[in-house]
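Predicting holo structure, protoporphyrin IX containing FE bound.
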Amino acid sequence: MSKSLRQFSFEDVEKHNKEGDLWVVIDSKVYDLSKFADLHPGGPNVLYAEGVAGKDATDTFFGLHRHEVLLRPQYARLQIGVIEGQEEAVKAPVPGALSKVPYAEPTWLSTGYYTPYYTDNHRTFQKAVRQFFEEVVRPEAIRCEENGKKISQEVVDKMSDLNIIAMRLGPGRHLKGRTLMGGIVKPEEFDYFHELILNIELSRFGTRGFVDGMLNGAVIALPPIWNYGSPELQAKIIPEVLSGKKYIALAITEAFAGSDVSGLQTTAVRDGDYWVVTGTKKWITNGTFADYFTTACKTEKGLTVILVPRGEGVSTKPIKTAYSPTAGTAYVIFDKVRVPVANTLGEVGKGLSVILSNFNHERWMVTGCSVGAQRVIVEECLKWANQRIVFGKPLTSQAVIRDKLGKMITRIEACQNWLESITHQMNNMTYNEMSNKLAGQIGLLKQFVSRCGRETAEDATQVFGGRALTVTGMGKLIENYHRTSGFDAILAGAEDVLGDLGVRQAIKKMPKGARL
Ligand code: HEM
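Done. Tokens:
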């Protein structure tokens, strides 16, 4: 390490400016690139250019690379010293730290601003969650997003040690007796703002497929079991899933029917103490690795939800989507699967209410994830527009770019503020009140957030140009977001259908005597 602390002057560096003897300065650090030049992914020639070889190439470097390049161990060791009297301006990110870039954090986390919703406990919780996600989950997210594999058991185990899977299902009796986030929040104090923090924090890595791969299946498929399953079924399935030992998926959608749930074709026919389930399901998140499927079936008496364990007659095939296979998106085939009648969730023929019972929570969860991802894009654009030099000036000197930034900021602030307002309502309402008063609002919110997300993805792509089209490099988060932001407009209910739901609910509630 003492080697890296050697002090040089610019005159010292300047002498090393040719092939075989090449030094450059980046952000006060001196790098010896003599041997690396031929291995440089951008080619050797660019490094021998005037203004680079033997010079301070800081601005040039940051116009072409993310800072993280310098932090990778194989490149960090190219540093041989520092320029005397200078200090680095770009610091390595500290896991858990808040960004100082304006609008990179929600108002409640920005220095000098106030909040009516969040307490000190939420702050402590947020800090611990971000630190854990950045230290433990981010490396896994990046690995899985690339190789398409499912989240490793090791990371799942670490998440369940902190009871993250349980907390992602929201406040409720399933948290009773659990130590949440190492004891930071008591189960009875855990509220929807804690859950919102989790949803926002887990979607900050620019790895959209992994967000769903992070056991989103449990968030949507387990509630029907604790709300409608028999005590025996609950006692077996809930601990297995919340401890991350077994995986579960919600199997409603088919190629035949999506938002029109009544058109489903998977059937369940009674045979003594068993259902015989036959049919197919499509786009089933976590389906490729799920052990259980909370499945909507047509029966003689109408729609019925049945928990189908993976076993004889159940097969799953991965579906290629625009996001990573790490989400486990599956085509599921049920071929005369025999399932005990005891696995019925709710009453036979009342499946629609079982399905609908969790929709509000799922849609609210998707908006939180979308807001988390969208805000990171705003930060990326602000940083890039500030550091990118065009025509000798920063990109921010262009009015058209400032206009795009203004619109992005407006959208993310509007999304977050409406989301927090609804979250506050959820914290103060009973389940029935929420169903009655918030279904329409959440539908409209989700439509608004996902539309904003796509507009921001488009604007960000224009700001980053060609860099937004490559999976690696400076615009990699923009590329991922642009490719996947449309998912938020479809998952948990298509955006147009949800917007319409919101309006229909409002019309239903119009006072009889309302006249101009
Ligand atoms: C410590 C010094 C450097 C290291 C470790 C390094 C490393 C890399 C890496 C890993 C890439 C692949 C793209 C990425 O991951 O972002 C890259 C691309 C590139 N580098 Fe460097 N680089 C260094 C210095 C420089 C300098 C001083 C220049 C000055 C011109 C330069 C010019 C380029 C160019 C033009 C590309 C291609 C960019 C693109 O495809 O968008 N590099 N470099």
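The longest helix spans residues 431-464.
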